[in-house]
Amino acid sequence: METRPSPWAAGIQLRCPQCGRGEVFAGYLKFRDHCRVCGADFKAADAGDGPAVFVILIVGAIVAPLLIILQFGLDLPGWLALTITMVTAVALCLALLPPFKATLFALQWKHKAREATSDDVE
Fold first, then answer.
1. How far apart are CA 17 and CA 104, in angstroms?
2. Would you give per-residue pLDDT tens digits along the chain (122 residues)?
3. Where are the domains of the chain?
4. What is the model's pTM?
C-alpha cells in the first residue's frame, strides 16, 4: 500500500496530494484536471481566497518594515524606497501564491474538505 505524501511537502513542491509525483498546476495558478501520474481527479479543486489572504498578510509584514528601513534607516528618497518596496511586494506575491494555493488544496484533499450543501444539514 502506497502512503500519501505530507500535504505540506506536496504543496510546497507543487505536486499531487495523492501520489506526490505529478504536477498539480497546468499553468501558473490553473489546476490540472487530473494527475498525470496517478490519475487523481482535480476538477473540484478550489482553494478559494485563502491563499491570497495568507500571501497578502505575509508580504505586508515583510514590505512594511522594509519601506521604513529604506526610507528612514538608509535615508533613500521616497520615490526610490517606494519603488523598491513595490517591486519586492509584487515579486513576493507572485513567488508565494502557487505554493500557498497548492498547500491549501493538498490540505483540503487530505481532510476531504468540500463545500457544504443542504444535504449536510440534519
1. 10
2. 467 788 899 999 999 988 888 899 999 989 998 989 888 888 877 778 889 999 999 999 999 999 999 999 998 998 999 999 999 999 999 999 999 999 999 998 888 776 666 665 66
3. 7-111
4. 0.82
